[in-house]
């Protein structure tokens, strides 16, 4: 893919993040004040679906193809431009249709189309990845990420079937949602981002061996780790034990990955002092996420986690906003795939501050909700934080107009 094309796709992806942040402001405004012209549920669906398709998935596909471009011909890479256009246009149609009609014919149609577009991408990437050399540290991470994303669509098809038949058992409904979210968050997003992370390492005998160990641990534990999302189903003892083992294995795998990744900071001169702090902050969030995940195996903790909406929202934002979005921005800045200047770094700092404040307030809401205590002006404060996030990404988008 031509360099200019890559830069343009990254700019489009960043603008999509701006749209996600803008929808977040609308939702927070409607909760804190009044906005009768828009349905909150519709904005919420538009926000989540577009965040997945228009922001994270779009950018991950672009970055994976960018990695692939080092090993294959430009003619093979250029074909992905058509697919990227189809995906992003579909994402925007999905965005508008969800705002207008919620779950309706158009929104469901384009949600389904986005799945098939991704399958199309997965097939192309799998075939072209054969040209990536065997010593690549990222190749297996990327291929398994594609597998998990395709696998996650089973959850959406089950949901679509239940809605079409108007037979929606609550347990199956929730299990299908968590199935999709698990294999998106902990499958597609996690494995693709880790593939990008290890691409910053220089392959050698030690790194290759350690990378393979970490990859195997995460890959084999990802499937049973889904059980951690449905512990409220009162699983048999052997399935509960499998869930506990998967949680332990992922914690072990994570600390091995941290040890492996330390070399990146030593050999990569493009990682500034601020970016080092940012990467460490993201690593802290991953550690927190995995420890919370492990804590959920205890019934008392699990009941609290699934019983209080602020806890669920805080956890989802921890993964998608703090970890995934934070990493993608850090990766773009590290590889100078965005315009790096004092101004763009300043607005990145503002965006990161917004993420921190958002998680802090959501976490406090969750903690106080245990005692059914309301935080005064919590909704108004979350609205202000949403504006901070919007300001941060707005500055990044505006000052990234220059060619990189």
Description:
This protein is mainly alpha-helical and 404 residues long. It is built from 14 helices and no strands. Helix 9 (237-267) runs antiparallel to helix 10 and helix 13 runs antiparallel to helix 14. The model has no long low-confidence stretch (mean pLDDT 89).
Keyphrases for this structure?
404 residues; mainly alpha
What do the pLDDT scores average to?
Answer: 89
Summarize the helix and strand pattern as letters: HHHHHHHHHHHHHH
Strand content: under 5%
Task: Based on Cα principal axes, name the global outline.
Answer: globular
As residue ranges, the low-confidence spans are none
Share of residues in helices: over 70%
| Computed structural class | mainly alpha
How does the major sheet shape up? none
Calculate the terminal CA-CA distance, rounded to whole Å: 15 Å
Q: How many β-strand stretches?
A: 0
**What is the tally of helical segments?**
14
* Oligomeric state as shown: single chain
Radius of gyration over alpha carbons? 21 Å
What topology emerges from the helices and strands here?
Layout: H1 3-32, H2 40-68, H3 74-78, H4 80-101, H5 105-128, H6 139-165, H7 170-198, H8 205-225, H9 237-267, H10 273-295, H11 299-307, H12 309-334, H13 342-369, H14 378-399
Helix pairs in contact: 1-2, 1-14, 2-4, 2-5, 2-7, 4-5, 5-6, 6-7, 7-8, 7-12, 8-9, 9-10, 10-12, 12-13, 13-14
Précis, in short:
By secondary structure, the chain is mainly α. The chain has helices spanning 3-32, 40-68, 74-78, 80-101, 105-128, 139-165, 170-198, 205-225, 237-267, 273-295, 299-307, 309-334, 342-369, 378-399. The longest helix has 31 residues, at 237-267.
């Amino acid at each position: 893919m031509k360099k200019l094309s890559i830069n343009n796709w990254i700019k489009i992806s960043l603008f999509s993040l701006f749209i996600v942040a803008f929808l977040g402001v609308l939702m927070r405004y409607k909760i804190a004040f009044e906005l009768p012209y828009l349905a909150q549920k519709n904005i919420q669906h538009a926000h989540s679906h577009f965040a997945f398709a228009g922001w994270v998935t779009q950018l991950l596909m672009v970055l994976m193809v960018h990695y692939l471009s080092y090993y294959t011909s430009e003619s093979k890479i250029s074909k992905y431009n058509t697919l990227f256009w189809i995906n992003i246009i579909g994402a925007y149609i999905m965005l508008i249709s969800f705002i207008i009609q919620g779950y309706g014919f158009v929104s469901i149609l384009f949600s389904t189309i986005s799945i098939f577009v991704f399958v199309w991408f997965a097939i192309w990437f799998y075939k072209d990845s054969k040209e990536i050399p065997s010593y690549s540290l990222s190749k297996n991470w990327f291929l398994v990420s594609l597998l998990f994303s395709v696998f996650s669509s089973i959850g959406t098809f089950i949901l679509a079937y239940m809605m079409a038949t108007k037979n929606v058992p609550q347990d199956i409904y929730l299990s299908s949602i968590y199935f999709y979210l698990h294999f998106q968050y902990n499958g597609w997003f996690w494995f693709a981002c880790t593939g990008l992370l290890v691409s910053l390492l220089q392959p050698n005998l030690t790194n290759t061996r350690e990378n393979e160990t970490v990859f195997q641990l995460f890959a084999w534990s990802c499937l049973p780790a889904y059980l951690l999302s449905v512990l409220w189903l009162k699983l048999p003892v052997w399935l509960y034990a499998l869930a506990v083992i998967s949680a332990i294995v992922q914690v072990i795998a994570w600390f091995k990955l941290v040890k492996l990744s330390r070399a990146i900071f030593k050999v990569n001169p493009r990682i500034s002092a601020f970016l080092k702090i940012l990467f460490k902050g993201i690593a802290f969030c991953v550690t927190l996420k995995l420890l919370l995940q492990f804590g959920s195996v205890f019934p008392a903790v699990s009941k609290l986690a699934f019983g209080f909406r602020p806890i669920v929202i805080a956890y989802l934002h921890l993964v998608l906003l703090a970890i995934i979005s934070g990493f993608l921005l850090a990766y773009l800045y590290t590889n100078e795939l965005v315009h790096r200047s004092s101004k763009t770094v300043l607005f990145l700092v503002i965006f990161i501050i917004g993420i921190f404040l958002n998680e802090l307030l959501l976490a406090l809401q969750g903690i106080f909700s245990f005692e059914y205590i309301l935080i005064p002006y919590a909704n108004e404060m979350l609205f202000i934080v949403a504006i901070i996030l919007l300001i941060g990404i707005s500055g990044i988008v505006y000052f990234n107009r220059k060619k990189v």
